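BACKBONE STRUCTURE TOKENS:
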Amino acid sequence: MATSPAAPRLHPAVADLIAALGADSVLLDDADRQFYAQDVYGAGPPPLAVARPASVEALAQAVRIATAAGLAVLPRGGGMSYTDGYLPVRSESITLDLAALNRVVAIDAEDRYVTVECGATWKELHDALAPHGLRTPYWGPLSGLRSTIGGALSQGSIFLGSGRYGPVAESLLGLDVVLPDGSVLATGAHANGRGEPFFRQFGPDLTGLFAGDCGALGVKARATLKLVPVPAATEHLSFGFDDADTLFAVMADLARADLASECFAFDPGLQKQRMKRTSLAADAKALGNVMKAAGSGLSALKAGAKIVMAGRSFLDDVQFSMHASFDGRDADDAAARAALARRIVGARGREVENTIPKVMRANPFGEVTSMLGPNGERWVPVHGTVPLSKAPALYAACEAVFEAHRADCERLQIDHGYLSCTVGDRGILVEPVFYWPDERQAFHERVLDAGYLAKLPAYPANPTARAKVAEIRAEIARVLMESGAVSFQIGKFYRYQEGLAPSARAWLARVKQAVDPRGLMNPGSLGLGR
């Protein structure tokens, strides 16, 4: 008589995880393991299992079980990485999905801080703070519907609020971090056992050690962030420029003046891609949110009418466009900031309809449809931040790389564009973005809405174009390193180790050895412990 095939034998550590967390909190299905081995751009070998702890104690237990068995542990937040940030480099790994650690632990409106579990998304945190009239100074990336607090703190993150408040780490006060042995380390104000976590400086800044570590040193479990009042009023401005040098000079002047909460720009290539997307005027939800933000009555009707009238044609004769939002304590303050910005721009640019920053602010946490191009193309960026005066040179250096590959890009239908942003009063981020026809990954199929995907063309596998994109992207990463640019979301992609001064490289290796002597915490991240 025929017998059924035996079930595959579980790794003992996986069996221990199931016993500790429960069967519903450990994923073993092949499709799940394949999904968690992919990010927006790349893929690695599937992990043995995906653990989904629902408390800090369960997270510490899961890390302890896995590392005691010699398995690598890979912390994953919202999955929005495109630099192999949480991808396994070997199959003997456990992925930690932190989505269930999403509680807002405490909101102190009087002393202006919030403590939150690191699996919470930026939208979840923003929504929890809204009834208090408060937000964090940096309040999330545009992927904040899915991106998590811990992911941003691990990888580094900018956008909403970054024009004035800088990157996410500058809003951070303290952390609870699960170390590779399963112990929990309190840093910053979290280490003050007799007080509240209201202040970051409490002896050596251990918090800074884990901010931007890409999960190489530990798993962020809880974080405390500063709070500021939600601005009472906001003004939005957009300008067109004829060339990149003028654009970057204006962005630098605005950053030095500390005016804009966000200041970002598109080159002609990315502008073309952005305007291919569904008409802003036809997006009822976006339009409705803009009108809601404008208030009621005539002001709301005017705001909606301006967007409808502008349609998608208001940038047709603009080469480079810049978009900025100016938050104020009241309407006069916001208007004064915008007026000063107009004076700074002066005759160097031409003011155009402010549809883009207005819609972006009214819909800050939309679905992450931009992980594919407007016609369903694959998408991946690469970026670096340089001092305010150095952005034109970095842009020119990146363009030289693309020019060297122009014939191949035209033949393979590889397009590119640039997003640029100011980062506080310190620098300008320059981000080349690639688009090319290629098949979607399982990641895209699972994350993006099926109805949205059905409207997009589907392409066959295109390994030739994919390899060319990887080649150009690697060359730009070299240019960034040689230019002294700094990058967020370092993951396993950027040439981080090569760019470090020898003393810093050696010291970081010693820290890694001290906290993770077997190299089990996200191996390969930051170029460590692969």
Remarks:
- Confidence is low (pLDDT under 50) at residues 1-7, 300-310.
